[in-house]
Specification:
The protein is α+β, with helices and mostly antiparallel strands. It is built from three helices and three strands, in the order H-E-E-H-E-H. The chain has helices at 2-11, 52-60, 84-94, and strands at residues 36-41, 44-49, 66-67. Strands 2-1-3 form a three-stranded antiparallel sheet, with no helix packed on it. Helix 1 packs across helix 3 (84-94) and helix 2 packs across helix 3 (84-94). The longest helix has 11 residues, at 84-94. The relative contact order is 0.22. The model has no long low-confidence stretch (mean pLDDT 97).
């Protein structure tokens, strides 16, 4: 869990995302794990569950599914910068943010 938080601090996630429910440039991570989010995919709204697949896609292709109410194009892809292991550490951390 500590490794995931450290990775997120190092790559700047907390500049745009909070862990306390406060809205910034991106949605808060508070209580997000396992929840349903409304996202915009290709111009259409749909519901997705925040799970491993969604987090991987959000990190490597952040404009594929943008949480409704947030601006597309602000988050950059971390493909090539983060490994699958790094993302798995981030996921383990996100599971603990309540």
């Amino acid at each position: 869990v500590a490794t995931g938080k450290r990775i997120m601090q190092n790559i700047g996630c907390f500049a745009c995302h909070t862990t306390d429910g406060t809205r910034l440039v991106g949605p808060s991570f508070k209580g997000i794990w396992g929840e349903e989010q409304t996202v915009v995919t290709g111009g259409n709204k749909r519901k997705v569950k925040v799970d491993e697949e969604y987090i991987h896609r959000s990190i490597f292709d952040p404009n594929a599914d943008v949480v409704d109410g947030f601006q597309k194009g602000l988050m950059v892809s971390y493909e090539g910068q983060l490994s699958d292991d790094d993302v798995n550490h981030i996921i383990e951390y996100l599971k603990t943010v309540k």
